[in-house]
Amino acid sequence: MIRIRQVLDVPRVENIEETVDRELRSLNGLGIKRGDRIAVTAGSRGVANIVRILRRVVQKIREAGGEPFLIPTMGSHGGGTAEGQIDVLRSLGVTEESTGAPIRSSMEVVEIGKSRFGFPVLVDRYAAGADGIVVLNRIKPHTEFEGPIESGLMKMMAIGMGKHKGCFEVHRQTVQFGYREVIPEIGSIILGKLPVLFGLAIVENVYDETALIRAVPASKILETEKELLVLAKNLMARLPFEKIDVLVVDEMGKNVSGTGMDTNVIGRIMFIGEKEPERPRITRIVVLDLTEATHGNGVGIGLADYTTRRLVEKLDLSVTATNAITAMTPEKGRIPLAMATDQEAVNAAFQTIGAVQPEEAKVVHIRNTLELGEMEISRALMKESRGKAEIQPLREIGPLRFDASGRIQKV
Questions:
Q1: Within 10 Å of residue 25's Cβ, how many Cβ atoms?
Q2: pTM, two decimal places
Q3: CA-to-CA distance for 145 and 142, rounded, in angstroms?
Q4: N or C: which end of the chain has fewer CB atoms below 10 A?
Q5: What is the homologous superfamily of the domain 8-235 according to CATH?
Q6: 25: Cβ contacts below 8 Å, ≥ 6 apart
Q7: Could you tell me which residues are beta bridge partners of residue 71?
Q8: Can you point out the beta strands (E) in 229-277?
Q9: Domain ranges of the chain
Q10: Which residues pair with 151 in a beta bridge?
Q11: What average pLDDT values come out for the chain (411 residues) when binned by 10 residues?
């Protein structure tokens, strides 16, 4: 194995606080009156610099005379409970102490309208009762479909703010009518019915760094998100190879991706009615562990071919089932073959790639699907990479290494 770095010329925000200040000034006023109760969305993803961004937004709302508070906006995550969602935020470093704003967590929702398909539009009761709402989220490709609007501000409103019940109603519609129709519509209904002041969109680069922060007036969220999604796709983390025999993933979890492992990275979607990606083509995927921040939620484990008993023992089956059922993706909750150790799982993957000798196998070893700036690749892929300026070899690693208990040496 050889350690490599993807060398890409990508934008990066150098000063988070100054950038947030500049973007908020561009709105020509936040639309906040003294004493207004302002809800700020806080999701369950591992967004770079999220604590600093939230803290600065909270500070600016206070300076404008508002009384900010955070609402967990993560659909059914955290086991679908108010306490579980606070725990998820805490694991991401988002607390009242770190952000300067109280967290109001409830699974209670109110109905504010109906979709054109006849389903209720449900939103968090604290959001519905606020004098103003700030929608903050990362813009990125969705893990289950492709369209002009995918994962971002509109999804945060349609699914995140819907809590468990609202999230379930949205996902029910996507099976028949598709995400690309349902998310923009539900988001637009919320924009029309609730006092959304503005959105704060975040785009990240391949190195899991903040590449852009953009403040967006509520009236321009839909059109601006379409533009930023194009940028996000150009900057997204990806594996720099089209054909891989074995992909070894050290960890998966909800803080990494909504599906534990980003489907755009691994080339597997597994959602009713959606076409599977053409690339990358990965014969076997081995995932070895869960992140602590996922709190036992292993949704997405069904995307792998092999896993470990260590991971399975960390699964909260109830939490995983809640998420998988709510998202209409029971397939992603299936448990693959669980081997006793990392070494046995990797060996099993090599045994099922067909007539390929191990020394000729195209192997990639990554920490997770979010952090792809550096990775380890086999000699066969290194040969394939000759002449590619974007792939910089860092050092020889030697064979994949395992300790006496069969645990892999992590990336």
A1: 12
A2: 0.83
A3: 6
A4: C
A5: LarA, N-terminal domain (3.40.50.11440)
A6: none
A7: 41
A8: 243-249
A9: 8-235, 238-396
A10: 140
A11: 93 97 96 97 93 98 98 91 95 97 97 94 97 97 87 95 94 89 95 98 93 97 96 91 97 94 94 87 98 95 98 97 93 97 98 94 96 95 91 94 93 76
